[in-house]
Amino acid sequence: MPNTTPVIGRNGSITINGAEAGYIKGVTFDIDADVIKDYKFTSDVPAVLESGNKSFKFSFEKMFIDTTYADLVVKGTKITILLGPANCTPVGQPKYTLSNAIIFHHGWRDEQNGIVIENGSGEAASLDLGTY
Amino acid sequence: MSAKKSPAEVGKELFEKEEQKDREVAKKFSPQKILEDAKAIRVLNDPVLGEVKYTVLTTGDLLAMNKITDEWERARSTIFRLLHKAYPELKEEKDVDNFPGTVTTRLCVLIAGPENFFQIPQVSTHGSKSMKKRKSSA
Questions:
Q1: 29-88 of A, contacting B, C-beta below 8 A
Q2: What does the pLDDT look like over A57-93, one tens digit per residue?
Q3: In chain A, N or C: fewer CB atoms in 10 Å?
């Protein structure tokens, strides 16, 4: 079986107000968009077919948040999630940015330097596909 | 003195350590260990008979017992096969014939209970979660 490096990683870092606050592992996306569709008389094909309001939901296996930011995240502070290949930042490599994200479903445990949230999910205000 | 690690580095290292630990404790199929376990003498504490030592039935035992059609003879064979490795004084199946009926009956009751001699190992939380559910009898 070929052992290939994925183009885009499922792991990444967490930032809060521009400061690095933690690490996230096993992120998957579940993006929804409302369908805007309308017909006109004498036609059975849509006259309007557009992608409407969107939501950028995501779930993850584990998230580590540094002690400094743990309280903020647990209380709902918005975070930014940067996903890249194996969390490295080579110039030109793909980067997914989930901005203004909140975590709304999780359990968590204490660790020496922070907290670990497991099997959580959340929603971001936007998802941008760019490069480092 | 080493530089302070960033939160992302701390988290990454933490998760890698946890995954490493999971891999170490994950069960691995080992025929050698299974054969050794099959010889191990186990203990069942029964409120009536006290401490009962036994070994698990092997596939060979099951094949031999499957050929016995009489229910009581099969029960006797099962008792002998469970006990004889732990109690060398039991040399042949006929030795079980000298047990008092109450003891044999109690052993049969224990054999009928799946939680006694035939307890199936529980699925590890680190292993596969694909386990068949027992069908309800309703």
A1: 62-66, 69, 87
A2: 999 999 999 999 988 888 888 999 988 765 455 677 7
A3: N
The interface predicted TM-score of the complex, written ipTM, equals 0.75
Partner-chain contact A63 B10, CB within 8 Å: no
Q: Which residues of B touch A113 (CB under 8 A)?
A: 7, 10
Interface test with A, best of B5, B9, B12, B16 (most A CBs within 10 A): B12
**pTM score, two decimals?**
0.55
Which residues of chain B does A108 touch, with a Cβ-Cβ cutoff of 8 Å?
none
- Reduced to 3 states (helix: H, G, I; strand: E, B; else coil), residue B50 is strand
